[in-house]
Task: structure prediction
Amino acid sequence: MKNEFEEKILNYMRETVHRPMPAEELAAGMDFSGAELDMFWEALAALEKRAAVIKNRSGLYGLPEHMNLVVGKLSMSGKGYGFIIPDVKLTEAETDVFVPGAMLGSAMHGDRVVARVSPSPIPGRSREGEIIRIVERANTKIVGTFASTRSFAFVTPDDQKLGQDIFIPKKAFGGAKNGMKVVVEITKWPEGRHSAEGQITEVLGKTGDPGVDVLSVMRQYDLSQEFPPEVQEEANHIQQTVMPQEYEGRRDRRDFTTVTIDGDDSKDFDDAVYAERRKDGGWFLGVYIADVSWYVREGKPLDKEAYARGTSVYLVDRVIPMLPFELSNGICSLNQGEDRLSMACEMQISPNGNVESYEIIPAVIRVYRRLTYNIVNKVLVDGEPEAVEKNRDLLPMLETLRDLRNARKKVRHARGSIDFDLPEIKVKLDDEGHPIELIKREGSLSESIVEECMLLANETVAEHMEKKELPFLYRVHEQPSSEKIERLNNLLAMFGLHVQANEDGEIRPRDVEKVLERVEGRPEERIVSAVSLRSMQQARYADANLGHFGLAATYYTHFTSPIRRYPDLIVHRLLRETFASGTMSAKMQDHARGILPDIADHTSQRERVAVEAERETTEMKEIEYMTQFVGETFTGVISGVTAFGLFVELENGVEGLVHVSRMVNDYYEYVEEQYALIGERTRKAYQLGDEVEVVLVRASVEERNIDFILKDNGVYVQGESEKSKKGKASTKKVKSEAAPKKTSSKSKAKTAASKKKEDKKETAKKSSKKAVKAETKSKKTASKKTSDKKTAGKEPAKRSSSRKVNPILEGLPSKAVWPDPKPQASSEKAKAGRRK
Result:
């Protein structure tokens, strides 16, 4: 957790010190002595270690942002260059830092680095940097494909942003054979022109075997379904029934006909609802959330592991839970007919949908019935006789929930809550994990009912704690940057529209929503919606209430999913501290303020990891599904435009690239402000949102590639996909076909111990380069470009192997909402470089 003493030093250096300074002078200026002085030296060393402060050659300490340095995470493009996403930006105008390949040193993708910054020689381009220090290595273990000769081998990383193969001496093969997916531990970092070196620590299986693909992604992101022994032991000792003494101090709501409403395949239930219609036309709404904080106590093994994981991860074929089964599906899950401890938010709501009063209390409930989205839709939407008859006793409450949902939708619409209507794509798998169907799901009434209930509870809890002025954890979604507002307005001007900013350069959510309403049903609806979505910031956790722009909410938190999200668990703990006296002790307040910033940062990062892993496994199966349709024609929509081509999304949610080199009837110029490629001679324009017909010419699971050509502007050679596969197979013994091109064969040869090894390695390198020479460039990173634009400001789905979700309905327990996680690189240049 973040050391308060470190923060005190940083604040002093930011606000008071205006030059590099000796440590002794810093200590004297802050008036430290005695025990505080000892703490100062320890804190300063920790700050220097993580490069929050820099010690220069003269022994003076300063902040990197004032020393022409930048500290941040390196995001590689897969093309041999990278961008540093700074930890600190002094102004909004400060860009990410472009790092040419020659200036990378030995840094690898994901490393935290220090770079010396200089202005770009080309006006309007990003700042440029040279990496001078690696603060923290990100890739101690790497997942990839093993390829060997008799005396040495290489592992080609699955993550092609890593940019170079890992050399494996024969003694470190670990039983791996050609073509196997392996985990390699780095034993020697790259240096100069020498590749990294490693040893095989785990053989996952043969490439293509059932389950190996998803297992590889799990290892790549360091995800495990198993829990450490001490964590599992604690879980095993938790009683699976509520004990009599645990009812004390709780409101008894077991006589309420509470229901859970979730997906058909849901196993863990952390939210239940109950509603009544009042005589005045208003409502009583109770939202009851599993009381996970009662069982997971701070500092215990369960808590430490939950913090480390941060969130449950919903991969295409399995769930990586945040908590062991005994809690997630057992005592914490609100199972039908069983007494369960809960945290309740009970609200009295006016006829116009506003909260008049509320209570946040510990309670005990017994879920009356487990319902599903399908059942509720059959009752309320279809009026299916059998479903209605089976749930006739609940019909009045379900109708009440529907009416309350309608009222709350009106309230949110009036204040400007932005609604991007994105469908959900779920991959259906067979018993061996092969995709057999892509199912497109639109939002339904039943999901919307639960979403509105959860949103209201989240807002109510956040406002409750903010008005108490107590430390708390919020879910925040900030204003779009002025640069993105300007880009959006440049596009809107083409259609006679404009989003007006105030004198501070800020816009209102209502104005964005009005624009979306005006273009609804018009030809420009697709492009305006897409660019508006990309203009959004990404939501995150914070220890300060910054509001939620997308929801147009002044107060917002995550209260409703403590089984699967660590921030919700923290929210429950903080609420519990207030139950006895209405406030927190001074000691607890100090403790909370000390730990919440780190919790917010860590859980935001873990959420992004989860989204990346979920997306990668889903896209992997989508590509596998599409291999059977090579040569067929599809109708799609242009979902992205870059200088190197068009990204086209099909009706089933699959997206692929039409490379500009395959557009044969003209030379095409990228016109960024119009989001279009325009022919020099024909003036034919392909613009974001346009509908096009494409032919699928290639689908490569290994390279995460889907390639299209335009049906009326491209040449398809029958069987070209099969030819490329044959070419790869012929070199498979030497090396994986996905081998990055940037690694020098000369540098690899130098890592061998003898000339004989050098010769063999040189041959292997040349052979593998031929195997991949002009076939394709990694889609894995290109697909992250797609995810950047599709998930800006959104949240991951709970229980589906889906990629698209409703980006506004934020943070709900079994639904998907405001998925924010953009992948790490925020620079437009980084995105454009991902696949050229």
